[in-house]
Specification:
With 226 residues, the chain is of the alpha+beta class. It is 22% helix and 39% strand.
């Protein structure tokens, strides 16, 4: 057997072992959670006809880059219903960038008919593959549903920097959704929303095996030419 063939076999064994074991080591879930312990009394807003958009930036966990869901506390008074949508987009410091990665379509919360009603709303994304360690924003906005009818809501707010990987932002963009990627958002410095995001590892074994096969083909062709 040639030395080149032996090298390919050795690398094949090492590579297959690594990619077979790697998914077992990194499979799991992770959660960003500033909602636990929120006191149901601190709010930011209102969102409505002028201050239309409020969100929370976050940094994607390195080993669980698939966003499964995100949640906000949303409060509605006797003005209503609140019509809004929830979104996810990439973030570049002061504004969103690129296409929307997730949007819910129209969501409606009825007016409370009395004291403020608090709702912990979870948006299931179906699994969005994000870039590990990159920054994104999850936000709610009424911009697409402006109708000059007075309705408004508020979002649960933590007056503390509980999560170092992101913070709360808002923008007074009215009905102009395009401003969210054109104008800088206002930073609620040192504060977060009452927010939760759940992450998981995407279907790992088929992905790692495909990568291992591609690597073996590359190495085999390269070494056969040496």
């Amino acid at each position: 057997m040639s030395s080149n063939s032996k090298r390919v076999q050795v690398v094949a064994l090492i590579t297959m072992g690594f990619f077979t074991l790697a998914p077992v080591r990194i499979m799991g879930e992770s959660v960003i959670d500033t909602a636990t312990g929120w006191n149901n009394s601190l709010w930011v807003g209102p969102i409505g006809e002028n201050l239309s958009t409020i969100g929370q930036t976050f940094t994607v966990p390195a080993f669980t880059p698939q966003l499964e869901s995100f949640s906000f506390w949303i409060g509605v008074d006797d003005f209503g219903p609140l019509r809004y949508a929830a979104y996810v987009a990439a973030w570049e410091g002061t504004r969103l960038t690129g296409p929307l990665l997730f949007e819910t379509g129209l969501q409606t919360l009825p007016g409370s008919g009395g004291p403020r009603a608090s709702h912990f709303i979870t948006f299931n994304t179906g699994g969005i593959q994000l870039n590990p360690a990159a920054e994104y924003i999850a936000f709610v906005s009424t911009s697409a549903f402006q109708d000059d009818v007075f309705d408004q809501g508020v979002l649960g707010f933590r007056d503390a920097d509980l999560y170092p990987g992101g913070q709360a932002f808002y923008q007074n963009n009215g009905s102009d959704f395009a401003l969210l990627s054109q104008n800088p958002w206002v930073n609620l410095s040192g504060s977060d929303l009452a927010f939760r995001a759940g992450f998981a590892v995407p279907e790992p074994r088929t992905l790692w095996m495909a990568l291992s096969g591609a690597l073996l083909i590359f190495l085999s062709r390269r070494w056969c030419t040496l």
